[in-house]
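Thread: Newbie trying to understand structure tokens

Hi all, I'm a second-year student working on a class project, and my supervisor (Dr. K.) asked me to get a predicted structure for one chain before our next meeting. I've only ever worked with sequences, so writing a 3D structure as a token string is new to me. If someone could post the tokens and maybe explain what I'm looking at, I'd be very grateful. Here's the chain:
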Amino acid sequence: MRKQIKTEHTGNLPHFHRVGATFFITTHLHNSIPFDTLKKLREKRDKSIEALKKKRPSSLEKDIYMIRRAYFYAYDDLLDRCLNSPTHLKDHKVASIVEKSIRKYDQVYYNLVAFTIMPNHLHLVLDFSFQLNQMIPFDIAQYVNVSKVMNLIKGASGFEANKVIGNSGNPFWGNSYYDRYIRSYHHYLGAVNYTLNNVVKAKICTHWMEHPFTWLNPEYQKLELIFPNR
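---
Reply by user tm_fold:
Sure, no problem. This is what the structure looks like when written as tokens:
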């Protein structure tokens, strides 16, 4: 069942989501990265992947993964630097609204593994196997996917946050997000570690536990970390 893939669309592009997987997700505030800058990053990524597909090396899948990872690091580095970016999430009232929205759907559509709320963006690790365990027999038509969940989180939090900052009627979040489904235990540990330590990487604090809006589910703080899809 967990190998099923549900296809949705973001704009005109197909978005493929593995049902019941654990996802590492990043989204950012509106205008956090200039449109042209982000467009160039995406075009560079896509051209590199297309060139690889034409060559068809034996390491194609690994090489594509490395290109996508490089793209994400460049994208997240731009966010961490906050160059000419809105930083509404520095406001504890606004960050609390976002945290409340994230927690609202925990144990409804997913197990919330970890999150961090940065000045202009958000990282999440969400385990969607929760729905598989709750829905017996499983019905894919009733399954709530990543796209729907992100629309719920961003829609509610953006509306409330805009009231706090006096921005009602304007976009709060950017209209897209980055997601990767977690393929292995090693990948899982890396995603959780990256989420927790982004505040350290961005020099906001010296340890993630010092940051009020970085959180790890206590069940995942045990020495033998639980991997939902292992």
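A couple of things are worth pointing out once you decode it. Residues 5-15, 223-230 have pLDDT under 50 and may be disordered. The chain has two domains: 5-32+87-220, 33-81. Feel free to ask follow-ups in this thread.
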